Amino acid sequence: MDDSTGYSAENCSIARTLQIVGERWSLLILREAFYGNRRFEQFQRRIGVARNLLATRLATLVEHGILDRQSYQEPGQRSRHEYRLTAKGKELYPILVALLDWGDRHAADPEGPALLLHHRDCGAPVHAELRCDAGHGHLVPRDVTATPAPAPAYCPRPSNASMIFRAGWTSTAPVAMSTPIATRLITFDTSMACARSVAE
Question: How far apart are CA 1 and CA 20, in angstroms?
Answer without folding.
Answer: 23
